[in-house]
Each structure stands twice: as structure tokens, then as C-alpha cells.
Amino acid sequence: MSEQLKGFIHTITEQQLNVFSIRILQKGHLLAHWDRDKDQRRVQHSISKSFTCMAVGLALEEGLIHLDATLGDYFSYDHDHVPATQRNPPSPQELKLSDLLRMSSGHDSPPLWADERASLTEKDWAKYYMSLPMDRVPGEQFTYSSGDTFMISAMLQAATGQNVKDYLTPRLFDPLGIHDVEWETSPLGVTLGCAGLWISNEELSRFGQLLLQEGFWEGRQLVPADWIRQATSQQIETTGDGDWGKGYGYQFWMCSHDAYRADGAYGQLCIVIPSKEAVICINSEEENMQGILNAVWNEVLPLYTQR
């Protein structure tokens, strides 16, 4: 089924973009797919964040948490650990779930990046996050932060009594037919939330179709439609280049052509284009993610306009 994708394959080959797999759907039907070798489960990096967002929507619906919930509702602030010169308000206790969802926590240097997580001697990552001073008032400025999403996961675990993976398994993964999910955890067993989810590109395309259908799947409303509309609408402005400057929702990026996407480092992409009833999913190991997106806009998007 790769004949329709000749232009895309030619572009990524010519530009040496290390793409492994692409699947394109319209109205729930597979239009075309291409796998360099075979589609297999790979770590999805920050696409994991968008799955964590679904857990938030479900917990909201179940009344287990609310958007104005603060970190202080669940975790203590290690005031004594912070130098006296940096104890001015605000403190991490004041951070709302809504601030974390839209990456506006108020840190100039976001905590808990992958390298920092690997070297951190503190096993309680939530405690570590709560010990760090903030640089500005939260809720006003976007700064991409995997640490924010980890704290969302930690909040959810405290609110629901389950880690995010276990909470989502009967509510999302099993209904989508995504079984035996692997999702990395912190040393204390908190689902990373921000990264570490292992699924295949075909499984990712099911998630994309669920998003396109606003949470409806095989006769069931798995995730509230209002939540998906809210999460995939712009909640804060961004200042990046290209498709990173189109705004951010709740753990989703806005992008060109009135589309939105979940994305992960090195080219994991789940692009939803509601106006075309389209889903495009890609797995890669490639730093030039904008190059992949450009290939999608130039070579894949026209396949939908011709139908």
C-alpha cells in the first residue's frame, strides 16, 4: 500500500530522514502505510504525555481530581531545602493542574529531563520537584517541561490510588486493543507520564482515530468529548519555529493546516486533521522533526484533498 506514499518516501530518502513507519487513515479507514522493515513497539517519548492527558480527562469525569487542584493538595514543599534568597512566592505548592497541563509552571530550567532523571540520586522525584524554586508566576508563559507532566502523573496516582498505566489499562488501552503495555516508571513506581510508553505505530494510529472521533470507540465513549476538544485546542501561545510556534493545548501541540499532534523526540508523530477526517502516524529516530512534518504537509496532505 506504499504506492500513494511514493512522494513522501522519496522526500525522506533524499533528505536522509530516518523514518521507520507511516500510516495514514481517513474516516477510520487505512489509506496507505509503509514500513521500512516491520512495525514494532518502540518507545514513544513525549507522545506519552498525550496519553497521560487522557487519564486526566477520565479522572475529572470520575470526580477524582479537578483542574484547580494544586500540587500542595498532594505534596509538601521542602521550604528548608531552598536557599533563603530564593524563598519568595510563588512556591510549587501553588501550581495548578491546569498550569502543568499547558506547560506553564514558571521554571526557566524545567526539571526532570531525561539526563537529569538518569543521574538523580533522590528516588522521590515528586519531592525533588517540590524542592525547586520557581522563577516566575505560573500560568503565563509556556516552557516545555517533562517534569510538569511527571507531576501530573504523580498527582493522578495520589488522586486515583493507581499509577497512570494501571488506571488507563481498563479505561483506554484494553478497549483500544492495546494489551500488555509497557510504560517506564520512577524509582518509586510512578508512571513517567512524560515519556517511556512503548507501543507500535499501528497501535498509535488507533489512539489517533480515537482522538479524531472525540473519544468515541466502537459504540462507547471512552474519553469525554469535551475534554478532547479542550485538550486539543490552543491553551497557551508558543514561540518556537515552524510547527512549534502554533500554540499548545493540554499535552498536545497545535500545528499547520488546523491540525494538532502528539509528538515525541526523534520523530514520533500522531497528527490529527479534523477537517480532513484524517490521522497520520509516524515512528522515526530523527532529530529533524520539522523536516518530517514538511514532508507530511507537502506529500501526504494532498492525498486527502484528492478524495
What profile does the largest beta sheet have? Answer: 6 strands, antiparallel
Strands ordered across the widest β-sheet? 2-1-11-10-9-8
Please, what is the average pLDDT?
Answer: 94
CATH T-level fold name of the largest domain: Beta-lactamase
**CATH domain class name of the largest domain:** Alpha Beta
Topology as H/E string? Answer: HEEEHHHHHHEEHEEHEEEEH
- Structural class estimated from helices and strands: alpha+beta
Q: What separation lies between the terminal Cα atoms?
A: 16 Å
The rough form would be described as globular
Overview of this protein structure:
This protein has 307 residues and is α+β, with helices and mostly antiparallel strands. The protein has two domains: 1-40 and 202-307, Beta-lactamase (3-Layer(aba) Sandwich); 46-199, Beta-lactamase (3-Layer(aba) Sandwich). The chain is 33% helix and 16% strand. It has ten helices and eleven strands. It has a six-stranded antiparallel sheet, with helices on both faces. Strands 3-5-4 form a three-stranded antiparallel sheet. The longest helix is centred in the last third of the chain and has 17 residues, at 289-305. The radius of gyration is 19 Å and the shape is globular. The two termini are 16 Å apart. The relative contact order is 0.18.
